[in-house]
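Hey,
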Amino acid sequence: MTLDKSLRVSGGAIKSRNVLTRVERLKRLQELDRWSEGDPVMGIPKTRVVKVSLKKKKKVKKEDDDKK
């Protein structure tokens, strides 16, 4: 079943995920030097998900250049 257009959220697809895939976890662990290439893949430690928050841009007030 589909959602009506009036019920959709504009930023719905931009939210951060709270679970990483195994490949993403291994890359993150390699960056932290907690996993190397020969280590077993099963039973890898949990990794914290970094949530990215975007700051809102401040509106710039336009100065009237056409003042006479």
